[in-house]
């Protein structure tokens, strides 16, 4: 079964279990009845924001919308003292160069090791693509993002730009009413967000990891 249809069936099951009509769920999501129907049929993919809202409405975890994962091999040993392993969803890719269209569908899961205490809030992974954040973050790294709408100056954030159709990973700098997205690689120019070129911070970088082949 296609992932979008699987998620749609789960949405319908959770809705019916909680005695909600399609119209009632649409009101809670601030959308239309037709949109909810398309989510349930799988003809429209529920993005990250919708899945988090649905998880809150149904009082479930985001993981519950996806197929059960295989058990980890019993011979894998993780460090325990002072560390904790957390499974987080990987949501599409994020540009570390020129922004690319962000596909916010969950592509899979990854186990990440955190020092205790583990960062609070919703965590998700985004795959970096490009070299604009080098030497800090290399091309291909997995960025772990904590969902939040604001960050401090100098912090690295995942930002949706151009009417929420594209995403990029940059340092955030506030200057008056402007927000500047600053690359660490000096060969790239900053991206300036204003009324004519809007953007939205979706989360703060809390760590990144690199796979050694």
What are its keywords?
alpha+beta; DNA repair; SOS response; 10 strands; 213 residues; DNA damage; Umud Fragment, subunit A; 434 Repressor (Amino-terminal Domain); 2 domains
Structure description:
Keywords: Autocatalytic cleavage, DNA damage, DNA repair, Hydrolase, SOS response. Belongs to the peptidase S24 family. GO terms for molecular function: DNA binding; hydrolase activity. InterPro entries: Cro/C1-type_HTH (IPR001387), Lambda_DNA-bd_dom_sf (IPR010982), LexA-like (IPR039418), LexA/Signal_pep-like_sf (IPR036286), LexA_repressor (IPR050077), Peptidase_S24_LexA (IPR006197), Peptidase_S24_S26A/B/C (IPR015927). It holds the Pfam family HTH_3. The chain is of the alpha+beta class and 213 residues long. The chain folds into 2 domains: 63 residues, 434 Repressor (Amino-terminal Domain), CATH 1.10.260.40; 127 residues, Umud Fragment, subunit A, CATH 2.10.109.10. It has 4 helices and 10 strands. Strands 1, 2, 3, 4, 5, 6, 7, 8, 9 and 10 form a 10-stranded mixed beta sheet that branches. A hairpin with a 4-residue loop joins strand 6 and strand 7. Helix 1 crosses helix 3 and helix 2 crosses helix 3. The longest helix has 15 residues. It is globular and about 55 Å long. The chain starts with a helix and ends with a strand.
């Amino acid at each position: 079964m296609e992932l979008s249809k699987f998620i749609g069936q789960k949405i319908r099951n959770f809705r019916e279990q909680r005695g909600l009509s399609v119209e009632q769920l649409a009101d809670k999501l601030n959308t239309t009845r037709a949109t909810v129907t398309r989510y349930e049929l799988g003809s429209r993919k529920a993005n990250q924001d919708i899945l988090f809202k649905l998880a809150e409405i149904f009082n479930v975890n985001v993981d519950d919308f996806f197929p059960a994962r295989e058990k980890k091999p019993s011979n894998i040993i993780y460090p325990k003292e002072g560390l904790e392993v957390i499974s987080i969803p990987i949501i599409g890719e994020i540009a570390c160069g020129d922004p690319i269209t962000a596909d916010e569908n969950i592509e899979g899961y990854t186990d990440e090791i955190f020092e205790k205490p583990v960062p609070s809030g919703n965590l998700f992974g985004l795959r970096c693509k490009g070299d604009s954040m080098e030497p800090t973050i290399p091309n291909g790294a997995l960025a772990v993002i904590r969902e939040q709408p604001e960050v401090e100056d100098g912090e690295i954030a995942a930002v949706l730009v151009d009417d929420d159709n594209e995403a990029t990973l940059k340092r955030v700098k506030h200057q008056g009413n402007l927000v500047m997205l600053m690359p660490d690689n000096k060969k790239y120019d900053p991206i300036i967000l204003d009324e004519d070129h809007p953007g939205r911070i979706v989360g703060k970088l809390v760590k990144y990891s690199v796979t050694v082949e």
